[in-house]
């Protein structure tokens, strides 16, 4: 593509030059010659009229001698650089400039051959060898035509004049051609070279090499295109990296429980683990199986949201009550870790319109995280606030927090911060991805505020609705 685009412009440029040259050589040349002929004929006609009305008529009337008229004609002929003649009606040459006396005839002279025009080009009935422009003016005495004043000028004179004009046209064309060359150069520099850079980079990107950066800093559409492509390449390269990480995480999360299950079963079977210890290891196997189960479950769940296939079962329910119930289900773990709940709920009830089971899952995942990443003897606060037809639900802990540069990634599948790995070995890193998908499916928002070592707060919104009437 890159070569042909430039080639097209070059061909266009050369074609423009050739066509311009041909147009001048044919069309312009012909038009110019016609114009010069007409213009010269018109001025010669004026002279012929003058000569016919003043000198020739006087000569016929006998007011001027032949010598006087001839000398006048000679003077005008030199001035016009033309041959001037006086012809009788039948073609006899009575006076001819440059000659003393003439008695010759113009054979086959017929004034009607001029038609309606006062001039013609040709050999003038064979009187001249070269092509000549001949103009006539009748000599009229007492309303009768007595003869004609003829003015002849060789066409070669006119052609020489035309050639002068055409040379100027060629020079103008050459200057235009040069200007076009400068424009072509500018085009090459401002459009073609940047596009070639972009095409090369695009080729690199298509081959999976996202390292290539397009170095174009202009403030126009091409600069904007280059910047967009650079941005796209950076995004794609991180996407590719994320995908690699995703696969690595999936494999790792499946492999480690499977390896330990296999190891313990083998040890039990070959008697490495004594009979009385088997219970302990069977419990570990159960734990790992549960983890695998949870992992598979979560992946299935995510797949469902990813495909946008899940239908929400929207109903109106009291979010305060839902929060209380979910919090209660964590009582056992909370006692174990000495963690207490503080519920700050708006009023008695707060009705929202959403899919209750999905919102329970959101709350479960958020509170589960808050407990997992909290220190013993701390408090988890769940708070609801009503504002602008929305309920803001916040789950806040004072645990390990999330490092600043990880905050954006926690919504990604399988993502776990390094901080959390030590605290929670069971986690799959899928919980928040599911939460995000559920909230998005409700067309609502979820945000996180966290400071490493201080704590974390997740806030999501749900639409408020009127309390359903009891019937
Ligand atoms: P799962 O939810 O499947 O058990 P998980 O809890 O590790 O696994 P997510 O719920 O998706 O996965 O959370 C992703 C990561 O975000 C966590 O591993 C942790 O690093 C970080 N995170 C989430 N909530 C908190 C929190 N309240 N405090 C500190 N870090 C958190
Ligand atoms: Mg979680």
What attributes does this structure have?
single chain, alpha+beta, five-stranded antiparallel β-sheet, five-stranded mixed β-sheet, 10 helices, binds magnesium ion
Task: Furnish the topology, listing elements before pairings.
Layout: H1 2-61, H2 66-80, E1 83-88, E2 93-96, E3 119-122, E4 132-141, E5 144-154, H3 155-206, H4 221-269, H5 278-306, E6 314-318, H6 319-328, H7 331-337, E7 340-344, E8 351-355, H8 356-372, E9 379-387, E10 390-397, H9 418-423, H10 431-441, E11 446-451, E12 455-463
Parallel strand pairs: 7-9
Antiparallel strand pairs: 1-2, 1-5, 3-4, 4-5, 6-8, 9-10, 10-12, 11-12
The structure holds adenosine-5'-triphosphate and magnesium ion (MG).
How would you describe the overall organization of this protein?
The chain is α+β, with helices and mostly antiparallel strands. Helices cover 54% and strands 17% of the residues. The strands form three sheets. The protein has a five-stranded antiparallel sheet with strand order 2-1-5-4-3. A five-stranded mixed sheet has the order 7-9-10-12-11. A two-stranded antiparallel ribbon has the order 6-8. Helix 1 packs antiparallel against helix 2 and helix 6 crosses helix 8.
